[in-house]
Amino acid sequence: TIWYLYRDNILPKNTKFIGYARTKLTVKEVKEKSMKYMKVKPGEEERFDQFWEANDYFAGSYNKRVDYELLNQFINKHEKGPVANRIFYLAVPPTVFEDVTVNIRNACVSIKGFTRVIIEKPFGRDDESSTKLSNHLAGLFKEEQIYRIDHYLGKEMVQNLMTIRFANKIFSPSWNRENIASVLISFKEPFGTEGRGGYFDNFGIVR
Question: Which residues form the Glucose-6-phosphate dehydrogenase C-terminal domain (predicted)?
Fold first, then answer.
């Protein structure tokens, strides 16, 4: 998805992408693992190479502040201009949201621009844990700094439902809460949990 945004010139030209995770990897290894998903079309090869030149990677833990301080130093090397904004996209297990956000707040906040934190669903595993997470985030960041997203809303099937519902007047009188008792959507994937069984046991779809 980031490659598509870069390819279509939707991002600022001086955007830098820095991956952070526990696994020790090189950018070359990340590229090799990603290639099958990138869908590079003929004529885009040069642009694709430029995209990877804008990528970097840093390995560290989720819960040690010293690693985030080192990450901050690593990011600083790429922030040459007078303004530098930082967006942290947390594609991590919900169990480490608290550790990660505390360390970002304490060690990685931008000093010459804005800081934003993007959190993917699920936000906790029930109402109580969701409220706890929201309160935790509120103690670290202002509401306008926090983005809570559901990437499944970008699925073509879901988007098609929205189009059918709101672009066709014939459905408007009947497709509403007064006339529909429940909605069941079955979404079949052509692959398994791929090593994420522990996650699905406690969060998300299966639970």
Answer: 162-207
Domain coordinates in residue numbering, the chain: 1-151
**Rounded to an integer, what distance in angstroms lies between the CA atom of residue 55 and that of residue 46?**
15
pLDDT in tens, 65-106: 999 999 999 999 999 889 999 999 998 887 899 999 999 999
Q: What order do you get walking across the sheet with 86-90 strand by strand? A: 86-90, 115-120, 146-149
* Pairing label, strands 86-90, 55-59: unpaired
CATH H-level superfamily of 1-151? NAD(P)-binding Rossmann-like Domain (3.40.50.720)
Alpha carbon distance 21, 25 (integer Å): 9
According to DSSP H, which parts of the chain are helical? 2-7, 27-38, 45-53, 65-76, 97-107, 127-138, 156-167, 197-202
